[in-house]
Specification:
Elements (H helix, E strand, L loop, with lengths): L1 H31 L1 H4 L2 H9 L3 H8 L3 H8 L2 H12 L3 H9 L4 H19 L22 H13 L1
Helix pairs in contact: 6-7, 6-8, 7-8
Main location: cytoplasm
Subunit structure: Part of the SCF (SKP1-CUL1-F-box) E3 ubiquitin-protein ligase complex SCF(FBXO9) composed of CUL1, SKP1, RBX1 and FBXO9. Interacts with TTI1 and TELO2; when TTI1 and TELO2 are phosphorylated by CK2.
Pfam family, one: F-box-like
Length: 155
Amino acid sequence: MQKNSKRNSNSRAPALELNSVDAEKERNKSQNNFVELLPLEVTFKIFSQLDIRSLCRASVTCRSWNYAIRNCDSLWKPHCLTVRTVCQREIDGDLERGYSWRVILLRNYQKSKVKHEWLSGRYSNISSPVSLPEKIMYPMDADTWGEILEAELER
């Protein structure tokens, strides 16, 4: 009978140690995550200093950062307003439809890059469709092509 109780007590000790080690790791992880420690205003101030690429990278760092970044529309608005300089009609339309700033940015970011290239004359001397860089092309509506054509005609 004593053998059994001794064996049971020995088998429980490592489990308790393991649980305390896991708890300590969690505590340390939480202490290293400023998103969980700082007031939200401070956290958002830190994230607001990031450029769009860094903000997107930070959002995939961990769940708490993703949740904080994804759910704070004010972090996405300045980036979206920058894109609006090229895609005003598209951004304004998405705002009217009630999309969040993050979704509007996701919907229009790549298009703004390609549209900016077209509007700035980067493709003015393209002689055939084969000369177009396929990787960065983006489908655009007739109104956008009209804007690009007007810019080309003004050059």
